[in-house]
Amino acid sequence: MAIPENVMTNDDMAAIVDTTDEWIQSRTGIKQRYIASEKESTSSLGLKAAQRALEVADVLPAELDMVIVATSTPDNIFPSTASLIQAWLGANNAGAFDLSAACSGFVYGVNMASQAIRSGSIETALVIGTETMSRILDWQDRSTCILFGDGAGAIVLQASEAEGGVLTSVLRSDGYGGDLLCVPSVGSLDSTSANGHKFNKMYMNGSEVFKFGSRVMTESIPQVVAQAGLTLNDISLIIPHQANQRIIQSAARHLKLDESLFMSNLENYGNTSAASIPIALCEAVQQGRVKQDDYLVFVGFGGGLSWASMVVRWGVPKPEEARGSFVNRQRRQLSYIFAFWRQRLNRFNRRMDEVVNRVHPTRGRMIRLRRKIERHPLE
Ligand code: COA
Questions:
Q1: Is 300 near ligand 1, meaning CB less than 6 Å away?
Q2: What is the pLDDT of residues 220-271, one digit of tens each?
Q3: What's the rounded Cα separation, in Å, for the pair 49 and 92?
Q4: Which residues lie below 8 Å from residue 99, measured CB to CB, with a gap of 6+?
Q5: Cβ(210) to ligand 1 under 6 A?
Q6: What single DSSP character describes residue 111?
Q7: 374: left (phi over 0), alpha (psi -120 to 50) or beta
């Protein structure tokens, strides 16, 4: 996982909008959240989380076949944030794409990656949930801006003969509720008014989304567990989307489960959308709450409306016991350094091309032709 440096407490929030620490904590359970600085972005946080995941898994960037980034706050519409991260890692054998399923995105992404692995088309995938929600918040709307935070989490999935991994998933959508939680943006049908909401800012109908989140958590956890051929008694830990402690409490109450069966860390991070489940998973592993062969449930819900649940049989040892090797660590560092300079040089070359072209168009064409011949001598 990777978290921005700047922390914002509820008291800091009260200096911006008309709210109090007491109100936020009692209605949501959130005490603080992290906010990206100007230098940080969805891709930079995602890159850090990705590098840490590769370290823990002891996988080389060149081994990756696919990079999936679940995000609602990509750096650009395109190129995808996944492509940016793929380049910074030097994951030169990987495909890369962004996945838009709001706060359910990480579970969707893990499902896509595990299906691709199961089908035999790929071996190793990196799935990242990364967000800079602070960039799309309406900082004048106290009912939404207090809820969200920035951050990233990532996991590496790999083909294995060992039993376990992703056992089954339930992915669902109810687009009729799309207007309850949205960010009117590029492609809005009514580009002048965005249905009365602010452009590029999040709009949320809090009470409806609250009811939706509580309902789908309560319904989809038993559904996915039954689909895996298990009962709720088999589950060691449920890692829900970290939206609101009262939603988690409501699901626990309706399912007659102890609240402690649900991983919760939203008091420290707020709702980090697609990053919330991998961040919570990472902390659960660090705290020793996830052991080898445990059955876990991931459950996410959010804009779309969308929701997704998944049963995982945790197949890897704790990070300390992971098979880290000194040589691989050095190879990863070299890959990052090489990727960095390759991009710098590419950009420099392109800029030089532009300059030469402007000053001496014929010479520019000759240089480009020579480079093309060097790259593809047979053409
Ligand atoms: N500080 C103080 N008062 C606030 C406030 C804030 N930050 N935000 C809203 N209020 C006020 C409202 O204006 C309202 O005042 P009024 O009664 O004078 O009109 C009052 O508090 C109650 O508002 P209400 O919306 O009923 O509060 P709530 O208990 O439903 O809590 C949310 C609001 C947003 C915390 C809650 O609806 C929620 O968490 N919804 C789900 C959000 C979510 O999970 N979204 C992400 C899904 S991925």
A1: no
A2: 999 999 999 999 999 999 999 999 999 999 999 999 999 999 999 999 999 9
A3: 18
A4: 68, 69, 70, 71, 105, 108, 109, 112
A5: yes
A6: H
A7: alpha
